Amino acid sequence: MDWLGILASGVLAMIGPVTAAYAVSGNGLNLQFGYTGLLNFGHVAFMLMGAYGLALTVEFGGSLWLGVVIGIAAAVMLGLLMGIPTLRLRADFFAITSIAAAEVIRLVVRSSWAQPATGGVFGIQGFANEFYAINPFTATEVFGFDRFIVTGRALWIMLVGWIIVVLTTLLITRLVKSPWGRVIEAVREDEDAVRALGKNTLAYKLQALMIGGAMGALSGMLLAIEQQNVHPDSFQPRVTFILYVIVILGGAGTIWGPVLGAVVFNFVYFTIDQFMVQLQANVDFVGDLISPAEAALIKLVFVGIALMLLMIFRPQGILGSREEALIDAR
């Protein structure tokens, strides 16, 4: 067993651009769910809008930076269009309609009718050259030591990704410590009481949905740029549920919870993945019992068990407050 290789796999995943993208999206979901109490099961749709807004802008001759603006605007508009008719619904009904809306958007983008523009099931490739053209590092140069190495290309997207993580986290800090933030937390605790005080709770929930959606769009762009590819099947509902795991793991309603949750989740996820792959390949009786494909899927079993243990022994998450969790449960 290559134990150093297993550790390196987890560490590189933990600091990689995918973790940064999930932390940014987790920040947006935390604003919606952790602070405002919106049970948004369609958060992945905002990631899709950001990724496709960027890719389509470049595909039709626009610049990458214009694509960033269009992707964010598309996500904000989606939040507005999805929120106005649904945010008056009860939390469970909003959850159902949000996941349905996300699936409808994904299937439309994937359809043969939209294929001339979106690429359909084939997606869009090679649209981020403008981003990599300003890479200050040599793309093929190797940074790090031993097994803990990354290329200049990967280092550039990692650096940009973590800068966006810090900026979105600081933005949320400023928002939740403002009078606006105190209102959305009050909406989470008792919407009727806030409405009785004369506040337009629909407007506050709509604003949280749109701001969180804009962060989701940034996350989708980071993933698309890192892969130089955008594909509709990358935005299935399971992505939203992974984000919920990340937010709950770190601590919903905490400033740095989603960031810590993304780091811990991806470290455990990819470490177990590499461990199971090597176990299947190097231990004879394990190789006889399970195939390589099955070994790669067992990590999901461990993630499920870990999540159940978390809910039993620390339901408030790593950084969450037990007292606040008890208040929210009332």
Structural features, described:
The protein has a two-stranded antiparallel ribbon. It has a two-stranded antiparallel ribbon with strand order 2-3. It contains 16 helices and four strands. A hairpin with a 2-residue loop joins strand 2 (142-145) and strand 3. The chain has helices at residues 3-14, 17-35, 44-59, 64-86, 91-110, 115-118, 129-133, 152-176, 179-189, 191-196, 201-227, 237-250, 257-282, 284-289, 292-313, 322-329; strands at 124-125, 142-145, 148-151, 229-230. By secondary structure, the chain is mainly α.
Order the strands across the largest sheet as they lie in space: 1-4
Whole-number mean pLDDT: 90
> Could you state the oligomeric state of the chains shown?
single chain
- Give the tally of β-strands: 4
**DSSP strand (E) fraction?**
under 5%
Radius of gyration: 20 Å
The low-pLDDT segments are 326-330
Characterize the main sheet: 2 strands, antiparallel
Helix content: over 70%
How many domains would you count in the coordinates? Answer: 1
Shape: globular
Provide a count of the helices. 16
Report, as a whole number of angstroms, the end-to-end distance: 49 Å
- The class by helix and strand makeup works out as mainly alpha
Order of helices and strands: HHHHHHEHEEHHHHEHHHHH
